[in-house]
Amino acid sequence: MGSPASMVNEARKHLGYRESGDNDTIFTRWLGKIGGYPCGGYGYPWCHAFMSYCLAHSDNASAGPRTAGCQQGVDWFKQHGGWHSRPRVGDLVYYGANGGTHVELVVGVTSQAIRTVGGNTGGTMGGAYFNGDGVYEKQVARTSRICGYGRPAYSSNRMPSGAAATAAAVDACTTERSIKQQQQAVNRRGRKPKLDEDGDWGPVTEAGVRWLQAKVGTEPDGEWGADTEAKYKAYRHAHP
Questions:
Q1: Are 70 and 102 in contact (CB under 8 A)?
Q2: Sign (positive/negative) of CA torsion 226, 232, 237, 238?
Q3: For the whole prediction, is pTM greater than 0.85?
Q4: Could you read off the pLDDT of 73-107 as tens digits, one per residue?
Q5: Could you give the 3-state DSSP secondary structure of residue 126?
Q6: Span 131-178, pLDDT tens digits
Q7: Domain locations along the chain
Q8: Residue 2 to residues 54, 92, 105, 113, 142: CA-CA distances in angstroms?
Q9: How far is CA 214 from CA 14, 82, 187, 188, 198, in A?
Q10: Which of 106, 183, 188, 228 is 20 to 30 A (C-alpha) from 128?
Q11: Neighbouring C-beta atoms of residue 2, cutoff 10 Å
């Protein structure tokens, strides 16, 4: 079953892969040729071809767009209700004006940065830095150059295990309070059964946050942003 975990695992399998020739890769060969490009039509910018390949090879083929174009990817997510302004592990992050410049996979989230795996990008391998020719993992500041996030319609919400889950998903979805603080707030408002206050993000915690949001009168989207924080504080003041 497809999930953020299977998507991240597939992307990480290709870390260190480098293109041959002029943008010629296994990912463009898989996606198909485009007229007017070198290498028999397979030598086109391949950041989104890599994303589409990973979706298709992680049981997520129908969860996101199959395309070589970042703008087409943005349009797909907007048309399918999967466009967001806050990141989660497993999202596709789009850069530049209207998101048409570049795309990578979010594999980690903090309040100030995201960790990504991307193709046709720059990064380090074997102690050397390479510019824009391979698959690399890196940390990216959450700045205005990020246009937004496309969230695939994963069949399962299973997150990556180990370091990816603790370093990546712990602070997902919020700049207002930590995941553990969200769990504590849900429990204090009386949800049954109580959430484990372990600081780990997953579908059970997300369901608890949605429950609390409905209770305090804000959109139950599972993302603890500024509106949820304000409504929660007002509700807590009215119902001490």
A1: yes
A2: positive
A3: no
A4: 999 999 999 999 888 889 999 999 899 999 999 99
A5: coil
A6: 899 999 998 988 889 999 999 999 987 877 643 444 444 444 445 677
A7: 4-161, 173-238
A8: 11, 15, 15, 25, 27
A9: 41, 21, 14, 15, 23
A10: 106
A11: 23
